[in-house]
Amino acid sequence: MKIITEFPRKVVEFPDMGIVMPDGCRLSARVWMPEDAGDDPVPAILEHLPYRKRDGTIFRDQLTHPYFAGHGYASIRVDMRGNGDSEGLMDDEYSEQELQDACDVIAWAAAQPWCNGNVGMMGISWGGFNCLQVAAKQAPALKAVISLCSTVDRYADDIHYKGGCLLNENFGWASTMLSYSSRPPDPLIAGDNRWRDLWMTRLENQTFLLPLWLSHQHRDGYWKRGSICEDFSAVKAAVLSIGGWHDGYRNTISHLVTNIEAPVKGIVGPWIHKYPHYAGPKPAIGFLQEALRWWDRWLKGSETGVEADPDYRAYVMDSVRPARWHPERPGRWIAEQEWPSSNITIEALELMAPRAGSSTVASPQTCGLAGGEYFPFTFGPELPGDQRPDDGLSACFDQPELTKPIEIVGAPELEVQLASDRPQANIAVRLCDVHPDGASELISYGVLNLTHRNSHEFPEALVPGETISVRVVLDQCAYRVPAGHRLRVAVSTAYWPAIWPSPEPVRLTVSAATLSVPLRLLATGDEAVFAEPEGATPWATETVRPANSERHVDHDEKTGIVTLSITDDFGEVRDLDHGLVNGSIARETWTIQPDDPLSASGKTHWTQTLSRNGWSVRTETWAQMRSDTQNFIVSARIEAYEGEKLVFERNFDEKVPRALV
Asked: What is the per-residue pLDDT across 619-641, written as a single tens digit (0 to 9) for each?
């Protein structure tokens, strides 16, 4: 990355600019803007998050927001209420209060003497979600958004449910937010006499969101609110949507470009869950330059040519040897002027003719361990590995060896006729690239709770033994399969630890299946070109404890129990400007017995530390989830320490009825 230190306009920073909401709640914002903005007003760019600007997102903030400010913008990074250095309480993600606060911040910014009245909103993940939802609220001053790694459908394509299956990330994320929101504000911001009162109020009102999310197992009004797919036309601001093929949110870009009526463009690279100017696998791109083109057009009225950009630019990844991490993915950029594209044709591959008999699928509960993390985050061993272990636990339908390469661009679909021996069953479908020596690389996958085959809102129980036809839509992808390789469709009844298992072991009988593959003519070279990454001066820190990530799978030969243990030590660093030391460690354990779906268990333990000059605090959070045939059984605990003194503790224990359809 090229570091830029000189900008067209001199930048000034305000580390704690208070923004008071109509109800009196003070939000804390870190703001960068041109020094002369009072004389020459500029547009504003808002990023509205719960992740703590002081020590949470500071690495990426430091690269990004001063860069925008130096090019003539007021860049505003707000801690949401109940988090970081802001007052108030947070009761859920994407609440009406959160979205209204963002609208109020936008109105506040537009009215400031240093603002020209035009505002943009951006963010990745949580911030990518809420900027789309705020756009649908049609805040008057909001003219453009840049949404990265986000979704248009909170039920079908987030971290809670997928294809009607319960994602284990639902539990993992509830555990993460319990830990994140348990931390106090910085005394240097909140004040020596106030920070502790704010912290205690925050802890006493802390919510463990898992029971709430589990209580909405169907696509009801809870999930529809905030899902902009309910009314794409509500979004009037210009939308730039960006994502990565190694991220969990890879479908949104196509959905937005296909459905938004406002100006919209999409970019998908080979990246994990990161901003693309420093993401991996490489190649990274000059995201900040692309963002400036977007902001300059829609917030300043400059002719930057973004309207003429292709609707959809995507990186087609070449076949590689399976590995848990790839520093770089070879491939090429393609550009489609219109999306959906007439350059893509659908080829139907018949996997099993009705007269060819049937195939039985009854996977052990451990099938799925080669799948990797739902959204890889740590530049470490989190990508899907060689799929052969999971292939061996699935019914595999292999195609003939390819005589010429193909490029798959879009969302493959499997139409399958099957019968289940249980009233509730899950199905997982993986599309793999099989190398000549048998190595199996994951291209895309999809899962479906078969009781949701006709509706996520109104599921229907299966009739054991009755043959039904279902459609499983796999995730969007862009992948070149070389000549000499084969396509494999692997079908399983389990996908652990990505999804929670069915309450009973399941046997599916597959009588026919057809795979529809979106194919594009081979690109001969890059059809789109991006500038090399740039960024502002990086965050200045001193390492106190280096980061380290570990992942282990253990098989108990006596009991058969398989345990996946993940430890992500994010290290501990000291900010060389304000001196705050922050550290974080996340631990996850996923346990299951291959023959018993009710043995499934997830456990987490998070440690958060903050210190400066003899002052220190620590929070420890634990959570656990298991189930029986009727209920999900969940528990959690918070402990908060000031120095070594325990100053707060609280337990959460709850049973949530399990929807069997």
From this structure: 999 999 999 999 999 999 999 99
**What's the full length of the chain, in residues?**
661
Check if the beta carbon of residue 396 is closer than 8 Å to that of residue 490: yes
Rg (CA), the chain: 25
Report residue 368: phi and psi, to 5°.
Answer: 125, -10
Q: Is the pLDDT of residue 355 over 80?
A: no
pLDDT at 2 exceeding the cut of 80: yes
Q: Which helix (H) or strand (E) holds 133?
A: helix 126-137
d(CA 511, CA 280) in angstroms, rounded, equals 41
Contact present, 260 and 232 (Cβ < 8 Å): yes
Say yes or no to pLDDT of 460 above 80.
yes
Statement: residue 455 has pLDDT above 70: yes
Fill in the DSSP letter of residue 113.
T
- Among 45, 44, 163, smallest CA distance to 427 is for 163
Residue 619 near residue 635, CB atoms below 8 Å: no
410 phi and psi, to 5 degrees?
135, -160
pLDDT computed for residue 610 by the predictor: 98
Q: How far is Cα 588 from Cα 156, in angstroms, rounded to an integer?
A: 24
Nearest to 12 by CA among 61, 70, 62: 70
Q: Which residues contact 654 (CB under 8 A, 6 or more apart)?
A: 211, 634, 635
- Which residue reads 């930057």 in tokens? 304
| Structural tokens at position 191 | 């004040």
Instruction: Examine the pLDDT at 353 and tell me if it is beyond 80.
Output: no
Closest C-alpha among 372, 360, 367 to residue 389: 367
Bridge partners of residue 417, in order along the sequence: 469, 512
State the CB neighbour count (10 A cutoff) for residue 346. Answer: 11
In terms of DSSP H, where are the helices of 155-286?
169-180, 187-190, 195-204, 210-214, 221-224, 252-259
| CA angle at 239 for the pair 101 and 49, rounded to the nearest 5° | 30
Backbone phi and psi for residue 89, each to the nearest 5 degrees, phi listed first: -130, 145
379 CA to centre of own chain: 15
pLDDT band at 358 (very low <50, low <70, confident <90, very high): confident
pLDDT at 397 over 80: yes
Distance from CA of residue 126 to its chain's centroid?
A: 8
User: Tell me, what's the pLDDT at 354?
Assistant: 57
Which tokens in the block code for residue 55? 């020590």
Distance CA 263, CA 243 (A): 18
**Long-range CB contact pairs, 631-640, < 8 A, 24+:** 631/655, 631/656, 631/657, 631/658, 632/214, 632/656, 632/657, 632/658, 634/171, 634/208, 634/210, 634/211, 634/214, 636/175, 636/178, 636/208, 636/210, 638/178, 638/182, 638/203, 638/206, 640/182, 640/199, 640/203
pLDDT for 356 equals: 60
Residues with Cβ < 8 Å from 506, sequence gap 6 or more? 362, 420, 421, 422, 425, 426, 493
Supply the pTM of this predicted model: 0.97
| pLDDT tier at 377, thresholds 50, 70, 90 | confident
* pLDDT digits 0-9 by tens, 54-112: 999 999 999 999 999 999 999 999 999 999 999 999 999 999 999 999 999 999 999 99
